[in-house]
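Q: what sequence does this backbone want?
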């Protein structure tokens, strides 16, 4: 399963930024199913996913974290 992280940054309770993790193509090395896109992201063709008869686990998980200040500070 591929896990992505998103950090939501707040200042005084107002959303300022959304950040996604970026591990570049290093995170797809060693997997014969994955390919590097634009030198920044890994991808698996849907034809190689288990749901389509392939061997790759194409499930995705997303974890969210919050950063910043509370609106009452």
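A:
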């Amino acid at each position: 399963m591929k896990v992505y992280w998103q950090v939501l940054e707040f200042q005084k309770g107002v959303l300022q930024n959304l950040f996604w993790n970026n591990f570049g193509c290093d995170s797809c090395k060693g997997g014969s199913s994955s390919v590097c896109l634009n030198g920044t992201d890994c991808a698996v063709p849907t034809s190689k996913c288990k749901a389509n008869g392939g061997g790759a686990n194409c499930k995705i998980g997303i974890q969210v974290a919050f950063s910043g200040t509370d609106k009452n500070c």
